[in-house]
Amino acid sequence: MTTRNPQQTRERLLKTAFAEIHAHGFQGMRVDEVLRKSGLKKGAFYHHFNSKVDLGYAVLEEQIRPLLESVWLRMLGEIEDPVMDFPRMLDNLGQTVPPEMREHGCPLNNLAQEMASQDEGFRKRIVSIFEDWIDGFAAVFEQGKTKGYIRKNIDSRVVARFMVAVLEGCIGVYKVEQTAEQWIACRSQIAAYLGTLRPE
Amino acid sequence: MTTRNPQQTRERLLKTAFAEIHAHGFQGMRVDEVLRKSGLKKGAFYHHFNSKVDLGYAVLEEQIRPLLESVWLRMLGEIEDPVMDFPRMLDNLGQTVPPEMREHGCPLNNLAQEMASQDEGFRKRIVSIFEDWIDGFAAVFEQGKTKGYIRKNIDSRVVARFMVAVLEGCIGVYKVEQTAEQWIACRSQIAAYLGTLRPE
DNA sequence: CTGCAAACAAACCAGTTGGTCTGTTATTTT
DNA sequence: AAAATAACAGACCAACTGGTTTGTTTGCAG
């Protein structure tokens, strides 16, 4: 018969759930719909996960966190001069980003805004991922300092925290407005802000 | 008996629904719970509103839009020098903001992130409110130009669009992190950004 | 004063939802 | 090979959810 593959089954559930959560939010995501789209049954689901919330946590840790790493942290790792390179990367991202991201925005921020104040388990995990992102940004600015691209007396973590907030804000408003105008405005002003980090 | 007051009944429903949506999101808000908290019954609800979605639209137009006007647009109207005055207003806001706003963030952005890609009726109304907000900011920068506080060659609407995005981003991340550190970082960097708008 | 529409109350309902339970089959352990 | 267990399938269910219906009361126009 069809040979069993529990790891793959679990992954199928996670991938489908991730897409459904991204599209409808966690509360809007329906377990039955995940099952329908993944072609699996209740038995499989509740064998791999204890509850809907448990699935949500797993999506955060096993789908969203790796996505942040493979997209943003990888990107940040390639930055030489933050002031010049980052805005260019934003342009690049703006053109390569898949349509579902354009439509539904940042999966992490969506879950964050929906669930942070609803469930402490969600909030803690989301904070942890945000901190990783902030760490990634801070490292870029620290490196930028040693290479002379960034003023020595700026606080890299403060700037990093702001950058994460700005990006989520820009992505979020773009998701609502759905106009190039909004994205271009954000991109240009992010570049202007980064200019303040330059040594005199 | 208890004298009837349809306007007040409607307002009670809207006020309660606003609080429930703010606390649990639109999808998480339950009609029955709004009824319980407002002390009213199904008959009253479906007399004043056609559906749950209809109530959501009404909350946007009759609660959230006026709130934006009474908080942000009023604030912006009092600004003389945007670069100096706005960060100070942020400090003030950070201290006077009610606890439910601290916990649940911006009611407009919450609804925006949750419902924009779910329902076009929501998205359009939210865009309309965002545009009002952007208009308010743009007016401040335009006035700032004539008074010599702002460089003449900046595009007020671009800056305004960015400011709205930044604010929503900062409020959103703060809502998750719940630390003064995050808020202070955003405040200081918003001030730094606004500095780029100064004439040389 | 009367009729009539507006403003509710309250019981009711059908579809949905997350979750359970029982059974069956594949896989690993002994 | 036998026993145990992991990995499912599929029927089932109680609670919930938005919405409807029917009936009653209040206020107001004529």
Structural class of chain A: mainly alpha
The CATH class assignment of chain A is Mainly Alpha
Annotated CATH architecture of chain A? Orthogonal Bundle
H and E order of chain A: HHHHHHHHHH
Mean model confidence by pLDDT of chain A:
97
Major sheet of chain A: none
- What is Rg of chain A? 19 Å
Regions of chain A with pLDDT < 50 over 5+ consecutive residues?
none
Q: Fraction of residues of chain A in helices?
A: over 70%
The CATH homologous superfamily of chain A is named Tetracycline Repressor, domain 2
* Largest interface between protein chains, with number of residues from each side: A-B, 50 and 50 residues
**How many beta-strand runs of chain A?**
0
Total number of helices of chain A: 10
Structure report:
Two copies of one chain form a homodimer. Chain A is mainly α. Chain A has a single domain (6-195), classed as Tetracycline Repressor, domain 2, CATH 1.10.357.10. Helix content of chain A is 78%, strand content 0%. Chain A contains ten helices and no strands. Chain A has helices at 6-24, 31-38, 42-48, 52-77, 82-96, 99-104, 107-115, 120-146, 156-177, 180-195. Chain A is elongated and about 65 Å long. The first copy, chain A, starts with 5 loop residues before the first helix and ends in a 5-residue tail after the last helix. Chain A binds a DNA duplex (30 and 30 nucleotides) through helix 3.
